[in-house]
Structures
1.
Amino acid sequence: MKRFLLASLSAIAAITTFTVSSCKVDKCKSIVCANGGTCETDGSCTCPAGYEGERCETITRDRYKGAWTVTEDGTVSSVARYVVSVENNSNMTSVQIRNFNNQNNAVLVANIVKDSIFIPTQTYTVGTLTKTVVGYGVITPEKFYEGHGEMKLYYRVTSSDGIVDNYGYQGNGVASLWTK
């Protein structure tokens, strides 16, 4: 009887151990991550660059695209208010900014990482002058409509004649405010 009881308990323990260890739920079985996203063991999606959202369903740069009203006051230039157009660029993680610094021919490329925008050093021409721009910014959700309706950009425009105009870049001047 003792042997039977011991054998029975051993069998129950083995079955319980096997059952408990083999009941791991595959959280990715019912998850589809869009746009090449990868499902992690916890059921969340890791999105490729240029996409975001719970299931990588949102194109990051879409929140930046459109017409923006710019209000800026540089350390050298006067207060200005004008409109820029932010459009798709050739890759998913960047946009083109047209009419930058209120210059019709100024088309800059900016890189997007979630709520941050980075303007790598680049140039454009105004008459006989070459302007060099570098900067960064942050987009913030609009409180009432929950869209992304405000962006602060911090940049510096250096002219080939030696004049430097700062718009909050590295703490100099006031950031440029962009609103939709």
Note: Residues 2-21 form the longest helix (20 residues).
2.
Amino acid sequence: MRKTLLGMLATGSLLFGLAAPASAYDPVNIVHTEKVQAGPYNVTVGFSTWPLKALQSLDFTFAPDGGIADKGGRVVLSLGDERMGDPLARHPRKREVWGLDVFSLPEPGDWTMRFTIEGPAGTGTGELRNLKVMEQPGPPMGLSWAISTIPLFGLIALIVVAWRRTRRPV
């Protein structure tokens, strides 16, 4: 009994001790940065992938000089008439800056990021213009969906064949 409990305790501690580091989030690797002046605030915009491609998930980080502790704001991404706006919130995996986690831009083109930041030095607005977003990587979306349905049709064919073979004659 004592050996069993000791073995279970050792197994449990190994399981939970080794699982904790494996379940940690990957850090945000910033590979490119741009500087934006938003009124009195200098903001560093970081990108986890460069160059940007449409429909490709990436992380954006926004780091004003002096930190985010006493500041708030909003970012609006626009391409022509299309606009997407969000309040600036802490990045979930890089808590010392604002950010957008696993975010993608839906279309290629020249995007604009407009920042409005409120803080002790007042309110400031700035823009990062002509942010080039290239075409979506990989094959066209329709072809990708068509290829991905091939296993579904194979499964349906397998079920039909199995059903016909196991059916009892009347």
Note: The two ends are 60 Å apart (CA to CA).
3.
Amino acid sequence: MKSYTIEWGPHSLELGNKTLIMGIVNVTPDSFSDGGFFFDPDAAVDQGQKLANDGADILDIGGESTRPFSEEVSAEEEIRRVVPVIERLSKRVSIPISVDTTKAVVARHAIEAGASIINDTSAFRFDDELPDVAVKYGVPVILMHMKGTPK
């Protein structure tokens, strides 16, 4: 299998030789994957550190649930949830940190706090300014597919 390496800032990822592991930390009270166990910032940071220690290649920090029929969270609330966690984790781990968001303003704050990848579950459908943030900061983007939209 052909492989290639993407490099940005202090990070690089080799794609194609092995499956990369993304450790997910949802800083939400209503996540369908972890039941809100990491809504507390200290718990979220500890979990992120554990995932990195256990071999995750990327940490993904999210502040808004994308489970079906979930309530939308304001950008301000999403920033309040993810930025402190990203700030602390970026000082403790050397692997890239992605921010799971569909909002340009959240991505901007997260990158300034230490995130280095944007993980957009809407594939740029919800915020036309999100691609501009990726270009401005020179960060890679993960585009996801979502069936339908949250509530």
Note: The mean pLDDT is 92.
